[in-house]
Amino acid sequence: MLVLGLGVSACGGGESEEPRFTGAGKLCGSVFSDDAMTAVETAIGDTTFWRDNGALDSVVAKLKDLYTDGQDVYTSAGAFCDIKGQGRDSGRMNISFGLYKPDDVVDRGHASDQRSYELGKRAVAGAKNSSLYFECVSPQLDGSDKDPARIQGSMHFTDLNGPETQNLRENNLTVLHAASFAVARKLECENNGGLPQKVVLQPKPEPATSPTP
User: Fold this and answer.
1) CA torsion angle for 54, 55, 60, 62 (degrees, to 10)?
2) What is the mean pLDDT of the segment spanning 13-24?
3) 83-118 residue pLDDT tens
4) 126 and 172 in contact (C-beta within 8 Å)?
5) How distant, in Å, are the alpha carbons of 11, 19, 21, 25, 178 from that of 15?
6) What are the residues whose beta carbons fall under 8 Å from the beta carbon of 46, sequence distance 6 or more?
């Protein structure tokens, strides 16, 4: 009877449920390591997070479909991951991807809380919004050797208590780069879409402002 009881328990869902919380290294399909893990913890202000396994596979599948369809305007491939700390006052990051149109990488300036960086085709890091653009030539994307897929990663960051600092901007870009690199690798982009495996944070010079007459 004891053996029978144990068997019934196992068949009836005796396996333990997935924990609700996890560390930064297991977020979003475990795409964060080293500097990116530290950046997540520092930006969010926590070391324990609501579990989100991410949507790497579905985002990549959608990017492939959009490319095949020949999208010539920005089109979203959906949410990649939502990062929220366990603490009540912690910050929150939402990461998504899509295809951008060619002139989206033309530098037309940025918001006052953002800075441009030498990363990918264009990188803009902000305390609230960050974007990273890269091109992908891949055997998974028929014709991309002549017309690369133009992929944009976007992050929206919310922290009601945090100041808008360079450190926060660069933590946000570090996290977004790690997610973008994971997408590039999953797609088998040539040279990982031009993204380094370890993020290099090199700000672009800010344009000189004209003196007020």
Assistant:
1) -150
2) 75
3) 999 988 888 999 999 999 887 887 767 777 789 999
4) yes
5) 9, 12, 17, 24, 32
6) 85, 86, 87, 90
Whether 13 has a pLDDT exceeding 70, the answer reads: no
CA distance 174 to 35: 8
DSSP letter string, 18-68: PPSEE-GGGGGGT---THHHHHHHHHHT-S-EE-----HHHHHHHHHHHHH
Residue among 149, 168, 17, 141 at smallest CA distance from 74: 149
What are 140-186's pLDDT values in tens digits? 999 999 999 999 999 999 876 667 788 999 999 999 999 999 999 99
Q: Give the distance from CA 47 to its chain's centroid.
A: 18
The residue type found at 139 is: P
Would the pLDDT of 127 be above 80? Answer: yes
Residue 191 has pLDDT above 90, yes or no: yes
**Is 138 in contact with 85 (CB distance < 8 Å)?**
no
Residues 6+ apart with CB under 8 A from 74: 98, 99, 100, 101, 104, 152
Give the number of residues written for the chain: 213
Structure tokens at 153: 């990663």
156: which strand partners? 94, 129
Nearest to 151 by CA among 33, 71, 93, 48: 71
